[in-house]
Design a protein that fits this description.
- The protein is mostly beta strands.
- The protein is built from no helices and 13 strands.
- The protein has a 12-stranded antiparallel β-barrel with strand order 1-2-3-5-6-7-8-9-10-11-12-13.
- A hairpin with a 2-residue loop joins β7 and β8.
- It is globular.
- Mean pLDDT is 85; it is low at 6-16.
């Protein structure tokens, strides 16, 4: 799951249930995704832009209660004045840890942390040349009828316009998934709330993911709820997971 909005992720969080659901380790998982969005306003910017992206995600869970992940992506952006740019996106590193297992109506509690390293080019308009950090607490209800995840957290955005300055914004997340035969229907809402230097970037999404053996493939359509969010967006992904590492009792 990615927490920090921006770049190719269209201010959306990645599906917590895509490819490898939380709490199902040990596993190794890899995912290729691509998509785009229209009418998005990047943090600390005022002009809307369109973006397309292709990303590679890798996740490793040595046990049920912890996972680590990394994401690399390539970006293409265009602006209303006709300017266009292409280049690599920011490198993202994250980890999730379960601090309380769920039981009956009591949800499992997770803590998630992510850092965005400033690899994307500022000159090309693809990044901020600043390191961003996000943290979130997640409550997760999981059962045979599906899963519900609710979360709240904070993202610290490095301000590219002011030396040694930052903008702190709250994050909110609500996702749900329900199995329908070999597929799962996925729904989510959330994003970044208003902050001193940036407007809210909130969106909703609806998707479906199909599974066969260790393979997963899915599609999501999204729509913005606030002016800074992308008006519309779409994302496709395909990936696989397999057991790896020693089983932890």
């Amino acid at each position: 799951m990615g927490l920090i909005p921006g770049d190719g992720q269209a201010a959306d969080v990645l599906w917590p249930d895509a490819i490898a659901p939380l709490g199902t380790g040990p596993y190794c998982a890899f995912c290729l995704d691509l998509g785009g969005m229209s009418g998005w306003v990047a943090p600390f910017e005022a002009v809307e832009e369109d973006r397309a992206f292709v990303g590679v995600n890798a996740r490793y869970a040595p046990a049920e209660a912890v996972e680590v992940r990394i994401r690399l992506e390539g970006l293409a952006a265009s602006w209303p004045d006709g300017a266009r740019s292409f280049g690599p996106g920011d490198l993202r590193l994250g980890t999730s840890a379960r601090i309380l297992p769920g039981s009956g109506p009591r949800p499992a509690l997770w803590l998630d942390w992510e850092v965005k390293l400033p690899n994307a080019s500022t000159e090309l308009g693809l990044g901020t040349d600043e390191t961003d950090v996000a943290a979130m607490a997640l409550a997760r209800w999981a059962g045979p009828e599906g899963t519900i995840t609710a979360g709240a957290g904070l993202v610290i955005l490095g301000d590219p316009l002011r030396y040694s300055a930052q903008d702190d914004a709250a994050l909110a997340l609500l996702t749900a998934s329900r199995p329908l035969g070999p597929t799962r229907v996925l729904a989510r809402a959330g994003g970044r709330l208003p902050s001193p230097r940036n407007p809210a970037d909130l969106s909703v999404g609806l998707g479906v993911e199909a599974a066969r053996a260790s393979m997963r493939a899915g599609v999501e359509l999204s729509a913005g709820l606030t002016p800074a969010a992308a008006d519309v967006g779409a994302r496709l992904w395909i990936g696989a997971r397999s057991p790896c590492g020693a089983q932890v009792p």
